[in-house]
Request: fold
Amino acid sequence: MTSTEKDERNTSLSRTLRGIGVSPGIVAARVVVLKRQTMRAGWYHLPAEHIEKEVERFSGAINAAVEELVQVREKLAGDLADALSIIDSHLLMLKDRMILERTKVIIRRNNVNAEWALSQALNEIKERFDRINDVYLKERYADIKHVADRVFGLLAGREHDPLIEADEPVILVANDFSPEDTLRMQAGNVQGFLSEKGGTTSHTAIVARSLGLPAVVGIEHATSIFATGDLIVIDGSTGRVILHPAPVEIQRGQENDRRNRALAGELDRYIHLASETVDGYAVRLSANIEMREELPAVLRYGSEGIGLFRSEFDYFHGRRPPTEEQLLATYRQLLETMAPHPVTVRTLDVGGDKFLNRFPGNKAWLDRERNPALGLRSIRFSLYERDLFRIQLRALLRASVYGRLRILLPLISAPVELRQVRAILQALMAELEKEGQPFAADVEVGMMVEVPSAVVMADIFAAEVDFFAIGTNDLIQYSLAIDRGNQYVAHLYEPFHPAVLRMIKQTVDAGHACNIPVSLCGEMAGDPLCAPVLMGLGLDELSMRPAVIPRIKRLLRHARSSELQQLSKQILQCPDSDQVREFLAAALPNIYPKDFYQS
Amino acid sequence: MIQQKRDLIVGNRRGIHGRVATRLAEIALEYDVIFRIQRGKKCVECSSILDVLALALVEGTAINLQAEGARAEAALAVAAHLITAQDDP
Reply:
């Protein structure tokens, strides 16, 4: 029976599941289930005449694992140099005598099965690594385990890595995607993701969004419900997943997919073009990211820098806050990869409640907050927990020599906060100088404009910083007094509220009066309906998810600066958001074809 | 068989991690030599990157690198540069 016939027969078994849509888009494709082998290696004794067979079985698994890695290596694009070198070390580990020879010795000496012998060999390695004091080197054991898991899988009779065989489009299904899986996630034939675990801020969600591929998380038992080869449709906006979909649903999914591909192909043309209007008025289009793993997407979509690096990920990763060296490694990679383009790193921006949760030893944990949005968060938290803040700033200063760094301070509401940070920075610079550590003494320091007081006082602030970055998500919440997470008032959250637009305008003007650049890094920047207005308001930089950059660039390149400025000027006169929308609906068709700005 | 030795201080900020150890093994192959690293009383062959990693050679560690083979001197020069460099290969 061909797979098409099988699909037809299965239609009657069509079944809909609901998860959480975390990255929009609809796609129909076959599933590849990634099952992680847990290392539950049973022990069994082998009769003497079976020992050499067992050694052979083990060698066979090692060779198959090597073969798989070599194939993964060949499939990876050349711009993933880091990934390639990871695979090279994994290859050496597979053939390392501490794994290969040692396991064989244990099989022969104890007359035991390969799985058990391998887990013994691993234990011996683990003991040695446990004695290492250096955190970074100690954590390399995770790589070894990862390599061994591949061998365990093969010993357990897993087929060859299914992804390698597949040239047709696939949707990956896993319990959860680990950072190592990011490599697989970026393979060309992967069209979507589905995982059992995770939320909107999970690794899967973040990587999927920056690649612009649909993803659904939170489907319980997905790796058991779906089997490799099953045809499914996933909708990354609604979280709906259809197993064995009816032909009409497949068609809808595939049409959507085709449309997206055609659009992506058309937009690809813009990646290497300058981001400027017809008359040469330039707006920097940069990326919002939160993990190093997103860098390939940043490069792929032609971003001219990182307009917002959310630095929280390193802090939520382990059980303890990251060390200066860990942070330095992250920042350095960002800067080196993006040079000469700027990399804007926002210092730790968390609500005290969320963060302290992770570090219950913390003083303020005792005094839980009743109103976290107005509480000890963001820069206030950093200035309260100064030791943590110093570590981050030291790492940033040390990274500053590897490219063009811009340090961004969140939630500034009064000039005194800026002065406190400046004082800390100066002390740290003196410290680094004494230690002989290089840093860029002229590193740019800017602030987020996301509290109404910062807008009102923007002319004063502009004299004290090197740049402004407007954070519209928070600015809208604080100025309209709306919590987006509250379902009863969320509908009042309105980017086109004229108050918001006027605040943006006021900030831009105050910045330009002091000759400092003004960027905007809220969701508005990547919204095709908002972007033309923002460009017209005179913003120097718009920072957004990497995947939407080409689309926004197309809007920029098809307009004249005078048209955009005129548009914004008139919109600022609108009395409410409805009229802003009506005005846009009437004015935009004069500048663009409809599909340029409609979603 | 030519044998060459050199005392070195690990320069990489993250120590001799996977990528450095991998490169070391590759150099040994390219020059057809055997590298050994001695740290204190312990001595390991660089063909096993796990052995090398387990030595926990953090930045600033003093080691003795030995090369054995016809092109030991040239191999040692390349490897010494790798080990003492601050940056990743």
In short: Chain A has 28 helices and 16 strands. The two ends of chain A are 41 Å apart (CA to CA).
